[in-house]
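Dear H.,

Thanks for agreeing to be a second pair of eyes. The structure we're designing against is below in token form, covering all 241 positions.
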């Protein structure tokens, strides 16, 4: 199924940008009268008919629309520290989108080695991943903030909040994400994943004070991007039983 992406939808008319238009007309050889499918990134799929087949700006009339197309029954917010290698972070974002999540917050921890992340590139990758995996919603990417700023912003939020951290103090009980989800009857989930050097003790204590539940991801030592993807998969399989 071919999918195109546009946020320029108004009055029953869909307009594709130059990149999408070029792919539609030059690569896929569509022309006036052809029907195409367009996602808006917010969850709606539009069935359209092309009325202008310029490779610089395709226009199409909306024939029908379908809300929450390719969606999932939960809202997952992943707060993940950037990895030293940007490619690994982009890989995680792409694969997590294919599985299903809603918001990505890059967070900068006390032990983070990378403190800069170009969000427009990640956003572009997520658009492609959403189209490839047949989803009409594209995850939102927030601008990077510090771990402590993120925790403060989530302190009053409702829902299940989890932090994956290697607590050295055995007095701090940890559950698996699966166990934490089994006792939760809502659908709003936030998971924090730290950098290669893990969260600092101060960050972890601050998260617990803000209502985050300490969780583990199994016995294996996972890279940041693998841990984040494992968390996304755990949430997905909880609902897709």
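And this is the sequence the design step returned. I haven't edited it by hand at all.
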């Amino acid at each position: 199924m071919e999918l195109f992406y546009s946020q320029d939808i108004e009055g029953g008319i869909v307009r594709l940008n130059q990149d999408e238009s070029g792919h539609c007309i030059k690569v896929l050889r569509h022309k006036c009268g052809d029907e195409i499918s367009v996602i808006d990134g917010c969850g709606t799929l539009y069935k359209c008919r092309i009325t202008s087949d310029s490779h610089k700006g395709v226009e199409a009339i909306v024939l029908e629309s379908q809300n929450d197309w390719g969606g999932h029954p939960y809202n997952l917010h992943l707060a993940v520290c950037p990895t030293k290698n940007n490619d690994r972070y982009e890989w995680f974002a792409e694969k997590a989108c294919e599985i299903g999540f809603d918001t990505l917050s890059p967070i900068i921890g006390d032990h983070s080695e990378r403190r800069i992340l170009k969000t427009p590139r990640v956003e572009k990758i997520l658009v492609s991943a959403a189209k490839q995996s047949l989803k009409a919603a594209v995850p939102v990417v927030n601008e990077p903030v510090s771990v402590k700023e993120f925790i403060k912003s989530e302190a009053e939020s409702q829902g299940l909040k989890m932090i994956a951290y290697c607590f050295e103090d055995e007095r701090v009980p940890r559950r698996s994400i699966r166990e934490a989800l089994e006792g939760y009857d809502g659908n709003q989930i936030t998971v924090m994943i730290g950098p290669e050097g893990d969260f600092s003790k101060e960050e972890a204590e601050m998260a617990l004070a803000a209502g985050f539940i300490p969780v583990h991801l199994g016995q294996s030592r996972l890279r940041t991007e693998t841990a984040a993807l494992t968390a996304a998969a755990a949430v997905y399989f909880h609902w897709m039983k």
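Two observations from my side: The mean pLDDT is 94. The radius of gyration is 20 Å.

Warmly,
E.
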